[in-house]
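To illustrate the input format used throughout this study, we show a single complete record. The first block contains the structure-token representation of the backbone; no residue identities are included at this stage. The design step must infer an amino acid for every position from geometry alone.
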């Protein structure tokens, strides 16, 4: 049976998800397997397949974060940790929109949490 890069990537993800402590050893074994068969040129192809397969397998959750100014790495990590779900890695897609004035807006599939200053000011205006 011929193993395609996509099938290898899918198997790599499944095994490393099931045995996270063994991921490094699994990758080393894959490297040795490909080296032995003179197929090392497949490694970049396999690595490009991993993010797409992880999304297909629901292992990565993409969240859109809208802020008035770019966020720094420390805040990005805090957001990822606070939104983390069991077994899923959070991938933040950051958008900068100065029109929100301040605060932050989270969009996750069909859920929107609007903590922007613009929304707060609009709600104040409506209540007066």
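Output of the design step:
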């Amino acid at each position: 049976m011929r193993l395609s890069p996509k099938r290898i990537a899918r198997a790599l993800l499944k095994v490393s998800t099931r045995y996270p402590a063994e991921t490094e050893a699994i990758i080393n074994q894959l490297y040795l397997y490909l080296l032995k068969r003179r197929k090392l040129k497949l490694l970049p192809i396999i690595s490009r397949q991993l993010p797409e397969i992880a999304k297909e397998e629901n292992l990565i959750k993409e969240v859109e974060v809208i802020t008035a100014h770019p966020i720094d790495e420390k805040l990005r990590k805090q957001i990822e940790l606070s939104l983390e779900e069991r077994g899923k890695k959070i991938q933040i897609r950051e958008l900068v929109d100065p029109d929100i004035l301040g605060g932050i807006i989270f969009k996750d599939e069909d859920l929107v949490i609007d903590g922007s200053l613009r929304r707060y000011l609009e709600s104040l205006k409506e209540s007066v």
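Structural context for interpreting the output: DSSP finds five helices and four strands in the chain. The chain has a mean pLDDT of 85.
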